[in-house]
Amino acid sequence: MKEFLEGSKAVAEIVKLCKPGVISAYPITPQTHIVEELAQMVANRELNSQFINVESEHSAASVVLGAVAGGVRAYTATSSQGLFYMAEVLFNIAGMRLPLVMACANRAISAPINIWNDQQDSVSLRDCGWIQLFAEDIQEAADLHLIAYKLTEDKSIMLPVMVCMDGFILTHGIETVDMPSQEQVDKFLPAYKPLYKLDPENPITMGPLVDPVYYMEARYAIQETMVKNVLTLIPKITADFSKVFGRAYNGLVEEYRTKDAERVILAMGSVCGTIKEVIDELRAKGKKVGLLKLTAYRPFPVQEIYEALKDIPKVAVLDRALSLGSYAPLASETKAVFFGKKKKPEVISSFVVGLGGRDITKDSIKEIFRLLTAKERACEFIDLKPELLKENYE
Amino acid sequence: MFGPLISKPATSKKNKTGSWRVESRPKFLQKNCIACKMCLLVCPEGCISGEEKNTYHSDYTYCKGCGLCAMICPKKDIEMVKEDTKGTEE
Question: What is the pLDDT of residue B85?
């Protein structure tokens, strides 16, 4: 049924339909509305879950870790500093191969304190063993939660999924969202059956100390699962998803008017909507431009990116995060895809946009297309204000 | 190179919050004023001044048009009027 919903509300409604047994979270802007809605549902007894209030994100992540270890489906959500505070627990959840879904409302990182949207938080935690899926709009953010639960609980995966949605733009924006029925969700997502669980009758230890004889294999298994199983399973799950819900996603990448394109932007998140509009305008004027939208950032869909961009002469990679002191993260990984390949773009230019909530307007995107020339650009900041920079603080 | 790093005190004077007004501004009628200072005390911008009865007024460079002064005035001697001109000057 189509409803006019705030992004956070849509996500909360979807999570409710997934029936998690335990929800634990700590409020942080711009994620708060999601768990606020869920807490309300539990209080109203619309949702039969335990909502566990905690004193920090570190505890919230630990509670859901414990819940999944105990054999129930769980949910949490966070953002920015909260995600960082969870960091060591996130590595543990992945390392213990516990299936969990968490929303990350993408927000800038301090200092200076900034509550607005960029993607530095999730991107900084790209190495923690979580699958990361980025949503373009509210419908996709909601749908990705369903896809995420199906993916994380698959016996060939058993790795947690972070659904990344741009803070405020998607969490607080309001759109028409096609909400599924409980029957549809139950058909798509069966009840959670754990691989193993903490049970006093059959005692086990999870995440034990392992010496150098065992550690490398545990890590190798995650790496193999990521690059082999997850990348092949996501398109299968999205195909099942489209059979039940009628909406088609690739789940790894989405090509938008790239077939005969001469210039293509690679980006992830809500900015893809703005880019599509610009592309439509420029196409109407005969400019051959396109977009490659990246949904899966972890695992990184190397083969799909190669196939989509190998014949494109000029590629611009948009980053809403930095790896301070090096190339922009998404740009350097995209370049790595083509290193040593015969077929590759002549130019892969890197642009940094929209940090700390600076608006990415249609003009910003047009500026990027304008700067996407034969001259390759590394870490080119768009919409920078030079008047705010100074050489010293005398 | 440095970007924005620190903020200094007294930015409330630097930031011309009057530009935030969108709908209405307080009009000090200066007819029944008893100089109780309630408007001055309640103003979140601290931009109301006056000494004696019927002298109180607001500095529109900083007045955000929140309407607290009009609400608190026991003599209903301040009314919110429609913002006709945009800007910070009276």
Answer: 55
Q: Which of A237-241, A265-269, B5-9 has the lowest mean pLDDT?
A: B5-9
The C-alpha atoms of residue A139 and residue A14 are separated, in whole angstroms, by: 10
* DSSP collapsed to 3 states, chain A: CEEEEEHHHHHHHHHHHCCCCEEEECCCCCCHHHHHHHHHHHHCCCCCCEEEECCCHHHHHHHHHHHHHCCCCEEEEECHHHHHHHHHHHHHHHHCCCCCEEEEEECCCCCCCCCCCCCHHHHHCCCCCCEEEECCCHHHHHHHHHHHHHHHCCCCCCCCEEEEEECCCCCCCEEEEECCCHHHHHHHCCCCCCCCCCCCCCCCCCCCCCCCCCHHHHHHHHHHHHHHHHHHHHHHHHHHHHHHHCCCCCCCEEEECCCCCCEEEEECCCHHHHHHHHHHHHHHCCCCEEEEEECEEECCCHHHHHHHHCCCCEEEEEECCCCCCCCCHHHHHHHHHHCCCCCCCCEEEEEECCHHHCCCCHHHHHHHHHHCCCCCCCCEECCCCHHHCECCCC
Q: What is the pLDDT of residues A305-341, one digit of tens each?
A: 999 999 999 999 999 999 999 999 999 999 999 999 9
- Within 148-177 of A, beta carbons closer than 8 Å to B belong to none
The residue whose two tokens read 């959500």 is A77
CA atoms within 13 A on the CB side of A154: 20
Averaged pLDDT, A176-200? 96
Residue A74 near residue A24 (C-beta atoms within 8 A): yes
ipTM of the modeled complex = 0.72
B residues 7-36 closer than 8 Å to A (CB): none
Q: Residues of A numbered 79-138 whose beta carbons fall under 8 angstroms of chain B's beta carbons: which are they?
A: 112
How far is the alpha carbon of A32 from chain B, nearest alpha carbon, in Å?
27
- Residue B7 pLDDT greater than 90, yes or no: no
For A389, nearest residue in chain B (alpha carbons)? B3
Q: How far is the alpha carbon of B11 from chain A, nearest alpha carbon, in Å?
A: 17
How far is B25 from chain A, CA to nearest CA, in Å? 30
Chain A, nearest residue to B6 by Cα: A112
Report chain B residues whose CB lies below 8 A from the CB of A389: 1-3
Domains of chain A: 2-245 (3.40.50.970), 253-393 (3.40.50.920)
